[in-house]
Design a protein that fits this description.
heterodimer, A: 507 residues, alpha/beta, Rossmann fold, six-stranded mixed β-sheet, B: 317 residues, mainly alpha, ABC transporter involved in vitamin B12 uptake, BtuC, two-stranded antiparallel sheet, 13 helices, globular
């Protein structure tokens, strides 16, 4: 039964990473035996706050008060010893050991001889522990053979066998079916009845309203509010999550729609992409909104031939095409600016010139030999056109700012004259000034007739520069808006899976 | 409920595979050469299996932690040179000489282990260096010469028999039983799997992962040294270039036996069968009078096939 005594208070917690204030004076309070939901947009600071709680990341300032005592949590091991356990989806179990071995890893019952393990006792204890929690899993089963739902159950059993009484569950339902979610909720309720405190991070507001007692909302690293779920409705929570005004200007001029460049129909890939269809016109910026894990990046990867799809058809300029490799995609005139630009889009230790021309070497080579003068000319042209600020073409890309690095990635694609350019989070981690330049550049490309697909988790960006907006949720396209129709609240509503339960509250 | 319970579908499939390969190979060779299935030839195969199998046990330990030990061939050579040389050149008692050879192997394994655990070197780098060092030490100690040794008390360990069974086969059996018990019954054994299957998880569970990782290289050095003594005792001499390339045989035997190159999966039972496959193949190729130059090529191909099978079964999960 929940009482009112806070079992945990995180007071005035601040944390910054280079260039980002991840948490700004956040105070978070959890009561004994409650299920407390922690919600917020991507990047709101939920994960950072929980990483601080579980000792994975040190805080800059603030105090953690656990059971009335100020407590330092400086390592994951310390957090475990204090009874705080984080339930990961799969990483924390060893797949090729069995369930019993995983639960008691490092704490095996001793056998008759030193160093030996009393296996019968271990399995008996594991069976008991699982039975107490009504988890229907055989302790001799290999973790690799379990479903994700079962792995989570095993993780919970492991945490409880370590006497954890505060469980942090990060998006525990994201990979579960409805039935599995129901079973998990059942278990959560029974844990709660036994006084276990649960911090529940979820993007799915309907679940928050189903299972949680109270909800804390974070936005841009700050605490926005705390409320018992009975006293707020989904619309209010969505507004608290989104809350901000359009602060920055995102220039995008209207471009008259021209011909269709790309048409996708019924693209499916397991549970990740479900029957995705879309059209893209030349001169258009199509915004893809959704939460992390909604399938936007996977869609982009599929269009660029990185991941194979189960089914679906793609037309480019009206011709049916099969895109089964990035080479094929490039040959067809599709460019992809990935989210991880340092890891996937750039050779950090190579010069600006080499980075720009690496995919266009065919154009500047003769008989397999690169004509370096022509390559340099091509690179110079793009440095000027995109206004890339670099002391020279020989500068290593590592030494450029984030915004200029991103321009180099874009320049690389422009040198191939793409028909379709896909940008995944093009301005993440880029400062405001450079952001506006990237946006201006995208607008300019659209004007020249390139069809652009932009994935972004920043709603103001999506609303500011897209001509049309698709919202994805769990691998499906769930809504489409024109720029004029769209609002932050509505996009967030669909992105969070709001259309699922039809009793749509006031948004 | 022991590690036998560990048997997961994919493991059974793999073990089944490896037995199937061994039986198929034996049938094929029996058809091609009538001498193949004679008792004397089968014992001969078992005898040849011993060196690869014993080295393979240590290799399996390192591979279970997602490591590898490339130095085993060189340690075999150093240990055979030391055991023979200490007896012949330094007039040392046989038992003491053998003990020193074993300690040297374990010690060099410990050095590799420390380089990996404390120095942060990737296992293949540390043991590749150790491969050169141990081979070099062998050449230094022998000055490049073969050391002959005829003492019956010593050659017994490679050439003697108990009843019809060659002594190395008995040593191999003892080592396998020990290794099997350690891996399936003890904490250390379980932690070897845990380190290979998820080092971070193991560390967070309070396991001293560094000690476990270091220890498997000591085991590997020890088993290689034991194989080295057997080699010298079987050849009645220590040859400085003996066992060059043995690491490939040992790794192939482990992988054929279902131990994953990526750690966390497998066991010594499969390694034994894998080692038998390797020496049956060797033996068969000899009976068929195929040049040993070609045999190298075939070994390389078998290794590729074994690893491909490993990748394939992994992907199917």
């Amino acid at each position: 039964m929940p009482h009112d005594a806070p079992v945990l208070v995180m007071e005035h917690i601040s944390k910054s990473f280079p260039g980002v204030q991840a948490l700004d004076d956040v105070t978070f309070e959890v009561r004994q035996g409650e299920i407390h939901a922690l919600v917020g947009e991507n990047g709101a600071g939920k994960s950072t706050l929980m990483k601080i709680l579980t000792g994975a990341v040190p805080k800059d300032s603030g105090t953690i008060i656990l059971r009335g005592q100020p407590t330092e949590i400086d390592s994951p091991a310390r957090a475990l010893a204090l009874g705080i356990s984080m339930i990961h989806q799969e990483l924390a179990l060893i797949p090729y050991l069995n369930v019993g071995q995983n639960i008691y890893l490092g704490r095996e019952p001793r056998g008759a001889l030193p160093g030996f393990i009393n296996w019968p006792a271990l399995y008996a204890e594991a069976r008991q522990q699982l039975g107490r929690l009504n988890i229907d899993v055989d302790p001799a089963m290999l973790v690799a053979d379990l479903t994700i739902a079962q792995r989570q159950m095993v993780e919970i059993a492991k945490a409880l066998s370590l006497n954890a009484d505060i469980l942090v569950m990060d998006e525990p339902t994201s990979a579960l079916s409805e039935r599995e979610t129901e079973i998990l909720f059942e278990l959560m309720r029974s844990l709660k009845a036994h006084g276990v405190t649960i911090i529940f991070i979820s993007h799915r507001l309907e679940e928050v309203f189903t299972i949680a007692d109270r909800v804390t909302v974070l936005r841009d690293g700050q605490l926005v509010g705390v409320a018992p779920v009975g006293e707020v409705d989904m619309g209010q929570v969505v507004r608290m999550m989104v809350g901000r005004e359009l602060r920055e200007m995102y220039p995008k001029e209207e471009v008259a729609r021209r011909e269709q460049v790309l048409r996708v129909e019924g693209l499916s890939r397991g549970r990740d992409l479900r029957n995705v269809s879309l059209e893209l016109y030349s001169g258009e910026i199509l915004g893809l909104a959704g939460l992390v894990g909604a399938g936007r990046t996977l869609l982009a990867r599929a269009l660029f031939g990185i991941d194979a799809v189960d089914e679906g058809e793609i037309w480019l300029d009206g011709q049916p095409v099969r895109i089964d490799s990035p080479q094929k995609a490039i040959a067809l005139g599709i460019g992809f600016v990935p989210e991880e630009r340092a890891a996937q889009g750039l050779f950090l230790n190579m010069a600006v010139r080499q980075n720009i021309t690496i995919s266009a070497l065919d154009k500047v080579s003769r008989l397999g030999f690169v004509d370096f003068r022509r390559a340099a000319g091509l690179a110079q042209e793009y440095v000027q056109r995109l206004d890339i600020r670099t002391p020279s073409l020989r500068q290593r890309v590592r030494n450029l700012s984030g915004g200029n690095q991103q321009k180099v990635v874009i320049a690389k694609w422009l040198s191939l004259n793409p028909k379709v350019l896909i940008l995944d989070e093009p301005t993440r981690g880029i400062d405001v000034g450079a952001k506006a330049e990237i946006h201006a550049l995208m607008g300019q490309l659209a004007r020249q007739g390139v069809g652009i697909i932009m994935i972004s988790s920043e709603l103001p960006e999506i609303l500011g520069i897209s001509d049309r907006i698709l919202v994805m949720h769990e691998g499906e396209v769930v809504a489409e808006f024109t720029r004029a129709e769209a609002s932050q609240d509505e996009i967030m509503w669909y992105a969070a899976g709001g259309e699922r339960n039809n009793d749509r509250r006031q948004a | 409920m022991t590690a036998v319970r560990l048997s997961r579908p994919v493991d059974i499939l793999r073990r089944f595979n490896v037995f199937f390969i061994l039986i198929g190979l034996c049938l094929l060779l029996a058809l091609l050469s009538e001498r193949f299935l004679s008792l004397s030839n089968l014992l001969n195969i078992a005898l040849h299996t011993a060196v690869v199998a014993i080295t393979g046990v240590g290799m399996t330990f390192t591979m279970l932690t997602a490591g590898i030990d490339l130095s085993v061939g060189s340690i075999v050579a150093l240990s055979s040179a030391l055991s023979a040389g200490l007896i012949v050149k330094q007039n040392m008692p046989i038992t003491l000489a053998m003990l020193l050879a074993l300690l040297t192997g374990a010690g060099l394994g410990a050095v590799s282990g420390l380089l990996i655990v404390k120095g942060g070197l990737p296992p293949f780098v540390a043991t590749l260096a150790m491969m050169a060092i141990a081979r070099g030490l062998t050449l230094v100690y022998t000055r490049g010469w073969t050391i002959p040794i005829m003492l019956k008390e010593f050659t017994f360990w490679g050439s003697g028999t108990v009843g019809p069974v060659p002594v190395p086969v008995i040593v191999m059996a003892v080592i396998f039983v020990l290794a099997y018990v350690v891996l399936s019954r003890t904490r250390f054994g379980l932690y070897v799997y845990a380190v290979g299957g998820g080092e971070e998880t193991a560390r967070l569970a309070g396991i001293n992962t560094k000690r476990i990782t270091g220890a498997v290289y000591v085991i590997s050095g020890f088993t290689a040294a034991l194989a080295g003594i057997i080699t010298a005792a079987r050849l009645w001499s220590a040859q400085p270039n003996v066992a060059a390339g043995l690491e490939l045989d040992a790794i192939t035997a482990s992988v054929l036996g279902g131990t994953s190159l990526f750690g966390g999966v497998g066991g010594v039972g499969g390694t034994l069968v894998g080692a038998f496959i390797m020496s049956a193949l060797n033996n068969g190729l000899n009976l068929l009078e195929i040049s040993s130059y070609y045999q190298k090529v075939i070994k390389g191909v078998v290794f590729i096939l074994a690893v491909t099978l490993d990748l394939y079964t992994k992907k199917r999960r």
